[in-house]
Design goal:
single chain, 389 residues, alpha+beta, Gyrase A, domain 2, Elongation Factor Tu (Ef-tu), domain 3, seven-stranded mixed sheet, six-stranded antiparallel barrel, 21 strands, 32% strand, globular
């Protein structure tokens, strides 16, 4: 194994006193002050995240849309220009190799954002699947930094950031105020083009900014300067994980992996079996046959949300058991994939795969927490929804 890579913002994190940790082949900030403070800042105001470790693959060419329809489970050719779509890349057996966000940033031009630990695999799979298509694949991860501002004051902070400006010439006339959810916009930072997306992974409003690696430090500092009076704080991986858990968002390696199809994970909606080519014939995308069969079959396990009725949290890989008299754990009916105390809600929450007969909302279960059966109940996800204005 080689040495963990560092993002262009590594020295900024160290200077801010961040605790650094290996993650997906990178050295990333785990926290700067406290997990709780960073989590609450995102819910109340905003957090600033370094996402420069994420994979970034450009797909260009006359067949770019048709190729992505073939390579991914989503209907990417239907994405509008400057729009985005959450999708997955699956193996022939329908198992999930990674979950992705795909941005259409021009005619025949797409950006595929992959999880850091899977970036090389995704690139290799796309290259393999590109045979026969007029496309060019380019790994541009090293050329850019990716910063994200997440929280209810995110838009206000971007508007206040010195050097970050709208430019009608490169935005096609779209204003920042008109940027919709799951869309992107070309802007400028200190005169140079940047791409701003509006997707998010915390359950809050949020923006992602792709900037040239050489401008990353300047943009990071400008965002902090604009945001600090509004409650913005830098936030690390720990807060990111607790936020996405509250929002009920799956994480690769936990809820998603090569033993799981999108249907078990409750993400069957991203699988578009109705994709057709220009002549009306079905698109034979990778994994289609296995996923079509899986859609018609009864699930062996179901991903559910669990709310703790006590104070002890469930953690990943703990057994889920039937709840019965006494406190001794019983026969396992599932396994926790993610779990933690919820800073926002004030009680433990978890996601778990369980057998179908115990997956109904309101089912009383327990989690084996170090030999003690802690009471949990099945609840709908997400656990948290941001207030609507």
């Amino acid at each position: 194994m080689g040495e963990d890579r560092k993002t262009p913002l590594h020295d900024e994190h160290v200077a801010l006193g961040a605790s650094m940790t290996p993650f997906g082949g990178w050295l990333m900030p785990l926290r700067y002050t406290s997990d709780l403070a960073e989590h609450r800042a995102v819910r109340d105001a905003a957090g600033l995240f370094d996402l420069s470790h994420m994979g970034n693959i450009n797909v260009t060419g006359a067949d770019a849309a048709a190729f992505l329809d073939h390579a991914l489970v989503g209907y990417i050719s239907k994405v509008r220009e400057m729009g985005a779509r959450y999708s997955m890349i699956c193996a022939e057996d329908g198992s999930v190799l990674d979950d992705l966000i795909v941005y259409r940033i021009g005619a025949g031009e797409y950006s595929v954002i992959a999880n850091a630990a899977n970036a090389e695999l995704v690139l290799a799979q796309l290259q393999e699947r590109a045979a026969g298509f007029d496309v060019v694949l380019e790994d541009v991860q090293a050329d850019h930094a990716l910063l994200a501002v997440q929280g209810p004051r995110a838009a206000e902070i971007l508007r206040a950031t010195a050097g970050l400006a709208e430019d009608a010439e490169i935005s096609g006339g779209t204003a920042f105020a008109d940027l919709k959810y799951y869309a992107c916009l070309r802007m400028r930072f200190e005169g140079e083009p940047v791409l701003v997306g509006r997707t998010g992974y915390t359950g809050e409003d949020g923006f992602e900014i792709w900037v040239a690696a050489g401008q990353a430090v300047a943009l990071w500092r400008a965002l902090l300067a604009a945001g600090e009076p509004l409650g913005l704080v830098p936030a690390g991986l720990s807060a990111r994980d607790s936020l996405r858990l509250e929002a009920g968002m799956p994480l690769y390696g936990h809820e998603l992996d090569t033993t799981t199809t999108p249907f078990e994970a409750g993400m069957g909606r991203v699988v578009r079996l109705d994709k057709v080519s220009d002549d009306g014939t079905p698109v034979p995308f990778v994994g289609r046959d296995a996923l079509a069969a899986r859609k018609q079959s009864a699930p062996a396990r179901v991903l559910v949300g669990l709310r703790g009725e006590g104070r002890r949290p469930a953690r990943a890989d703990y057994d889920v058991v039937r709840r019965g008299p006494g406190t001794e754990p019983g026969t396992a009916v599932g396994r926790v994939t993610s779990g933690a105390p919820s800073p926002t809600l004030g009680y433990p929450i978890a996601m778990a795969y369980v057998t179908p007969e115990v997956s109904a909302e309101g089912t009383e279960l327990a989690v084996d927490v170090r030999g003690r059966a802690e009471p949990f109940v099945v609840v709908p996800m997400p656990f948290y929804r941001r207030p609507q204005n």
